[in-house]
TrEMBL record, chain A:
The keyword Transmembrane helix applies. This is Succinate dehydrogenase subunit C. One of its GO terms (cellular component) is membrane. NCBIfam families: sdhC_b558_fam (TIGR02046). Keywords: Membrane, Transmembrane, Transmembrane helix. The chain crosses the membrane at residues 65-82, 108-128, 215-240, 260-279. It comes from Paenimyroides marinum.
From TrEMBL, chain B:
One of its GO terms (biological process) is aerobic respiration. It comes from Paenimyroides marinum. It comes from the Bacteria. NCBIfam families: PRK07570.1 (NF005746). Residues 151-181 form the 4Fe-4S ferredoxin-type domain. This is Succinate dehydrogenase / fumarate reductase iron-sulfur subunit. GO terms for molecular function: 2 iron, 2 sulfur cluster binding; electron transfer activity. PROSITE patterns: 2FE2S_FER_1, 4FE4S_FER_2. InterPro entries: 2Fe-2S_ferredoxin-like_sf (IPR036010), 2Fe2S_fd_BS (IPR006058), 4Fe4S_Fe-S-bd (IPR017896), Beta-grasp_dom_sf (IPR012675), Helical_ferredxn (IPR009051), SDH/FRD_Iron-Sulfur (IPR050573), Succ_DH/fum_Rdtase_N (IPR025192).
Length: 280, 247
């Protein structure tokens, strides 16, 4: 009897494409919910969210699972495509494929490759900055009453993860120093006083509003979301079929949900750079 | 009807092959597509040329021998039929018709439009059967109650004639519709359940070894299948394989 080959067989590869694909669909929902704070939230809320996403251990596990899924989905997809190309060494002179299948179902590899380019660009634009480069820290202007008078003065402060404020003057004046791009230490000591929020909000807004490349990237991001829409238009329902979930009773529901998902999620993602570039 | 035919000519398996143009006249709309090719071949033979080799047998849509990729579709533009059931009334006077063999690494061309589909036979040998004693003491089939729903599904799957249109239409040259029909017709019946685990593992392994591509759920096979075999069968095979794998 043949052994099962859950990794190597043609069917096994389908399961993995489907599982990683569906997991990435879940990731999209989470990522979208977070990113929509760029439109509906304050800068502090968004930066707190970004801090949570880079520090919470449970999120860390999910993020590694996401990296793994993207890589596996891509590598598995490339391997499948190579095998599939080899399965027909001589092609047709005339092939009327449009008569029996949708355009997106026949171009998942092209769409996927474009998405991989987008993901790499997107990670260089934001993820790498957040993780590896020097970032501005979240600041806020607060009105401080001057003691013994009725007057108030505007003070620029850093928000910190403990909820307390550190005035910019305290850092400039030498009371505190910033280490590791985000930690406030009492100057000259090893005493960590608090941690600031990296201002990813400002980085994002500046990026899409940049006078030289802001428009180009806005267009690139919107285009990539259109690519995502087509990828999902086939991929979402296809994953269910690959996992064996095909029942005439529910097929309409799965296909309908897939279409809704494929239109709504990329559309909401695409609105974010448009909103920042043109409206904010 | 007067037609221009662009036909794939290939002397043998090793020949490179090429499309050759033929002009043909006097075609009746009521002729079947194969009869039209018969007319062409008569003319070629009269001229002393090599007739176009193509597969055919029953000419009534049940044997699965006739193949042909006509104007970019397996068995031509009509739905739910084999090439022998395709009639010339589907074409217009003056049309140009492309006629190519089914293309897949696992279906090598033998000559002209004839391809070797014995890879399907080898997949069948790997598990497309049930092991029962047929030497005269077979039990009456109706002694085992089977739900009408399941019996119908099994019968639908069993209508697969193994023509290979699914492979020819699939952009990946995947044989999954064929294999899943064979797996399903047995998986749905109690007689087939006995060997279900071995069957699906063995048939999928045989399919992969033959060099067919992987299914990406484009659904082209289901549309082009002359017997309307449903994608449900592929999903069932996916379930069967998964269940067999973790057993």
């Amino acid at each position: 009897m043949a052994k099962s080959a859950l990794l190597k067989s043609s069917l096994g590869k389908k399961y993995w494409m489907a599982l990683t694909g569906l997991f990435l669909c879940l990731f999209l929902v989470g990522h979208l919910a977070g990113n929509l704070q760029l439109i509906f939230g304050t800068d502090l809320q968004f930066n707190q969210y970004a801090y949570f996403m880079t520090s919470n251990p449970a999120v860390k596990i999910l993020s590694y699972l996401t990296y793994f899924s993207i890589l596996f989905h891509a590598v598995d997809g490339i391997m499948l495509t190579i095998q599939n190309k080899k399965a027909r060494p001589v092609g047709y002179v005339k092939n009327n494929a449009a008569a029996n299948s949708t355009w997106q179902s026949r171009n998942m590899a092209v769409l996927g490759t474009l998405l991989l380019v987008f993901i790499a660009t997107h990670m260089v634009n934001f993820w790498a900055k957040m993780h590896f480069s020097e970032m501005p820290l979240q600041q806020q202007t607060v009105s401080q009453p001057i003691p013994m008078t009725n007057e108030k003065i505007d003070v620029v402060v850093y928000n910190t993860t403990t909820g307390s404020f550190i005035a910019q003057q305290q850092v400039e004046g030498g009371e505190f120093e910033v280490r590791n791009n985000k930690e406030f230490y009492i100057k000259g000591s090893d005493i960590k006083f608090a941690e600031g929020y990296k201002d990813l909000y400002k980085i994002t807004v500046d990026f899409f509003k940049d006078p030289s490349y802001g428009l180009v990237f806005t267009l690139f991001y919107v285009f990539s979301m259109a690519v995502l829409a087509f990828h999902l238009l086939h991929g979402f329902a296809s994953a269910f079929q690959s996992l064996g979930a095909n029942n005439p009773k529910y097929n309409g529901l799965i296909k309908g949900l897939g279409k809704l998902f494929a239109i709504i999620v990329p559309l909401l993602f695409a609105i974010i750079p448009i909103y920042i570039h043109f409206i904010k | 009807m007067n037609l221009t035919l662009k036909i794939w000519r290939q002397k043998n398996a090793k020949d490179k092959g090429q499309m050759v143009d033929y002009k043909i006249g006097g075609i009746e709309p009521d002729m079947s597509f194969l009869e039209m090719l018969d007319v062409l071949n008569n003319e070629l033979v009269e001229k002393g040329d090599d007739p176009v080799a193509f597969d055919h047998d029953c000419r009534e849509g049940i044997c699965g021998m006739c193949s042909l990729f006509i104007n970019g579709e397996a068995h031509g533009p009509d739905r739910g039929i084999t090439t022998c059931q395709l009639h010339m009334r589907k074409f217009k006077d003056g049309d140009t018709i492309y006629i190519e063999p089914f293309r897949a690494k696992a279906f090598p061309v033998i000559k002209d439009l004839v391809v070797d589909r014995s890879s399907f036979d080898r997949i069948q040998h790997a598990g497309g059967f049930i092991s029962v004693n047929t030497s005269g003491n077979t039990q009456d089939a109706n002694n085992i109650p089977i739900k009408k729903h399941d019996a119908d599904r099994a019968f639908d799957a069993a209508t697969c004639i193994g023509c290979g249109a699914c492979v020819a239409s699939c952009k990946n040259s995947s044989a999954m519709l064929f294999v899943s029909a064979k797996v399903s017709q047995f998986a749905l019946l109690p007689q087939g359940r006995v060997e279900a685990t071995e069957r699906v593992l063995n048939m999928v392994e045989a399919m992969d070894q033959e060099g067919f591509g992987n299914c990406t759920n484009t659904g082209a096979c289901e549309v082009e299948c002359p017997k309307g075999i449903s994608l449900e069968n592929i999903a069932r095979m996916n379930r069967e394989y998964l269940a067999a794998s973790i057993k």
